[in-house]
UniProtKB/TrEMBL annotation:
Keywords: GTP-binding, Nucleotide-binding
Signal sequence segment: none
Pfam families on file: AIG1
Similarity comment: Belongs to the TRAFAC class TrmE-Era-EngA-EngB-Septin-like GTPase superfamily. AIG1/Toc34/Toc159-like paraseptin GTPase family. IAN subfamily.
Protein name (database record): AIG1-type G domain-containing protein
Region feature Disordered, mapped onto this chain: 144-170
Entry-linked PANTHER family: GTPASE IMAP FAMILY MEMBER 2-LIKE-RELATED (PTHR10903:SF188), GTPASE, IMAP FAMILY MEMBER-RELATED (PTHR10903)
GO molecular function: GTP binding
Domain AIG1-type G: start-end pairs: 174-365
InterPro entries xref list: G_AIG1, GIMA/IAN/Toc, P-loop_NTPase
Keyword check for Acetylation: no
Length: 365
């Protein structure tokens, strides 16, 4: 595997789909490329920047995939191509089997949705084709493989997004969004803000008293979105003086300016408290009745779940009815954070969910 190229492993059950994806990304017919065979059933296609490893179909008993990962597990991206009409259960099984076979963490295996599929909730990490392009561009930038005068990669017509995809992208990239971190004291709002910003901007520490006592905004760029992260004190504590609560709310709304807002309701997986039981009602009273359509629930302390050998799905499955109701009212938009880890995957998942909300509320689509 070449270290000065972006290395992408393409997994899946249909050779034609895997090859079509490579063709789309490279913008070249694969027959013009020299195909290298490194293992009996594995082909490599490359150009000056990318190296694609096209693996044998998952349904075969061939052991190439295991061997590829054991020789070099550090692919920049592992994409699992699925066919139109796929069953979620089957895909989950494929991911589970791959994880067992290769040791590759499930969250590092990303499903590429077929063209007509749009954002929705899936119990696995996924990209639309558009997101695959955006991820590859980011990798190119990160690896500094893209000289500033490099011609923009032209996408062949057959890779076009459904309807007016390119126009939508343009709109999205110029979008500013406020991520407003809300929740009870100590749930990890500030820590999550720092994870999103990839920098310790907000004070976050263990304390029996509320730590954040002023709203604060910090800004960053994520996947071409201009993101304003707004950290807040606990605005919903019944013990806080109403005048102080009002001050917090007023300041938070001022900081939101006129930009689109996605409310990130921060809770931790270890406790669901009485104060959280009616939190959606409180959110509605404060930010209006449409707030739940713009809310993503962010669970912190993913490390606690991991220690208990549980996935987010396990946790959601067995959680209290009161919490289930809140989650359902927010259209099941949940993400899991482990703020002790710097993994960018969790932020990416959050941003995917934020995009879903943006597309709905701002009618970008
Ligand atoms: N283990 C673990 N600890 C976390 C995680 N997220 C936050 N914490 C810890 O929880 C404590 C509280 O986190 P904060 O970010 O200060 O919580 P907050 O919601 O901003 O609290 P207030 O500002 O008081 O409202 C800190 O000690 C964090 O390090 C996590 O994902 N895992
Ligand atoms: Mg805080």
């Amino acid at each position: 595997m070449s270290h000065n190229k972006i290395s992408v492993m393409i997994l899946g059950n249909m050779k034609s789909l895997k090859k079509a994806l490579i063709t789309n990304i490279l913008g070249k017919d694969l027959s013009v490329l020299t195909k290298k065979k490194i293992l009996k059933n594995t082909e490599i296609y490359d150009d000056d920047t990318f190296e694609f490893t096209c693996t044998p179909d998952l349904s075969t008993t061939c052991d190439d995939i295991r061997e590829l990962f054991s020789k070099n597990p550090n692919f920049d991206l592992c994409l699992l191509v699925v066919e139109d009409g796929f069953s979620t259960g089957n895909v989950q099984k494929q991911i589970k089997d791959l994880n067992k076979k290769t040791g590759k963490p499930r969250e590092e295996l990303t499903v590429v949705l077929p063209l007509r599929y749009k954002f929705t909730e899936y119990p696995f990490k996924f990209y639309t084709l558009e997101q695959v392009f955006s991820k590859l561009s980011k990798l190119l930038k990160d690896k500094q493989l893209m000289p500033t005068n490099r011609k923009k990669r032209k996408r062949p017509a057959d890779t076009a997004e459904p309807q007016d995809g390119s126009k939508k992208k343009e709109k999205l990239t110029s979008t500013k969004v406020n991520l407003v971190l809300l929740g009870l004291a100590g749930t990890g709002k500030s820590a999550s803000g720092n994870t999103i910003l990839r920098k310790k901007h907000f004070v976050s520490k263990p304390s029996s008293n509320p730590v954040t006592t002023e709203c604060q905004v910090e800004e960053t760029e994520i996947n071409d979105l201009h993101v304003r992260v707004i950290d807040t004190p606990d605005m919903f504590d019944d013990d806080t003086e109403p005048s102080v609560q009002e001050k917090y709310v007023k300041r938070c709304k001022e900081l939101c300016e006129s930009e689109l807002c996605v409310f990130v309701l921060v809770m931790h997986v270890s406790r669901f408290t009485d104060g959280e039981r009616d939190i959606l009602k409180k959110l509605e009273n404060t930010f209006g009745t449409k707030v739940k359509e713009q809310t993503v629930i962010l669970f912190t302390r993913g490390d606690d779940l991991e220690e208990a050998d549980m996935t987010l799905e396990d946790f959601l499955h067995s959680c209290q009815p009161g919490l289930k109701e809140i989650i359902e009212k927010c259209d099941n938009r949940c993400v899991l954070f482990e703020n002790r880890s710097s993994s960018s995957d969790q932020v990416e998942k959050l941003m995917n969910t934020v995009s879903v909300v943006l597309k709905k509320t701002a009618k970008i689509q």
